[in-house]
Design goal:
The chain is of the alpha/beta class. The protein is 35% helix and 28% strand. The chain has 10 helices and 12 strands. Strands 1-4-5-6-7-10-11-12 form an 8-stranded parallel β-barrel, surrounded by 7 helices. A hairpin with a 2-residue loop joins strand 7 and strand 8. The two termini are 22 Å apart. The relative contact order is 0.16.
């Protein structure tokens, strides 16, 4: 069995780490490079950097940030935001990113997933999916959650796998920032449907939520932001708790 991964997520806006609730009411959470280095030292397995306004504001991805992060981190990191082409990915991987995350562009042009997987290998292609429950059905949303679609979550997740995605990063917009726990039933359903790893995002508030997402939610990795940024839970503390609960995690001395 593969060890479960703990992944801090840094949402980037105007070069700073920010965090909100349900994708709005953002507040500053610090310098992304400094936070990334801190989490690496504390035992994070990976880190995700997402420019949450890149697509909305039509800006290029954060190549400069990727270079700075690569110089400071000794763990894998994923970077995403505004990625639309093979050239965009080539630049970021050359700058030092281990994986890239695509979201809105993949929905608008699904063949992009195939192109990226073919050129760089599925192992470094993460498809991020933001979804919201509307009248009993989960629908995919674009542009940092600003734009609704009529695309059903599980249908899209399965298509992403078939087109060559290496991982799915699923964020429940309804749970994001609430600290009330992950979307366990939906995550379990997605895990049963797909054979590729699922990264759970949205709702982490206490250590018990991580145990639940790895057991009941069947996730392969759990992503969180504010509880790490504002020092509510330490990564070493969290991993120690999970190990005590017989959840297989990587630990550092």
């Amino acid at each position: 069995m593969l060890a479960k991964r703990i992944i801090p997520c840094l949402d980037i806006k105007d070069g700073r780490t920010v965090k909100g609730v349900n994708f709005v009411n953002l507040r500053d959470a610090g310098d992304p490079v400094e936070l990334g280095r801190l989490y690496s030292e504390q035992g994070a397995d990976e880190i995700v950097f997402l420019d949450i306004t890149a697509t909305h504001e039509k800006r290029k991805t954060l190549t400069t940030l990727a270079r700075k992060v690569a110089a400071e981190l000794n763990i894998p990191f994923t970077i995403g935001g505004g990625i639309k082409s093979v050239d965009d990915v080539a630049v970021l991987l050359t700058a030092g990113a281990d994986k890239i995350s695509v979201n809105s562009a993949a929905v608008r042009e699904p063949v992009l997933i195939e192109s990226l997987s073919k050129n760089f290998g599925s192992q470094c292609i993460v498809v991020a999916i933001d979804a919201k429950l509307v009248e009993g059905t989960w629908y995919v949303h674009l542009n940092g959650g600003r734009k609704a679609t009529d695309i059903e979550l599980m249908t899209w997740a399965k298509e992403c796998q078939e087109r060559g995605a290496g991982e799915i990063l699923f964020t429940s917009m309804d749970h994001d920032g609430t600290k009330n726990g992950f979307a366990l039933e939906t995550l379990a359903e997605m895990s049963d449907l797909l054979s590729i790893p699922i990264i759970a995002s949205g709702g982490a508030g206490k250590k018990e939520h991580f145990q639940e997402v790895f057991t009941k939610g069947k996730a392969d990795a759990a992503l969180a932001a504010s509880i790490f940024h504002f020092k509510e839970i330490g990564i070493r503390e969290l991993k120690g708790y999970l190990a005590e609960k017989n959840v297989l995690v990587r630990t550092k001395n």
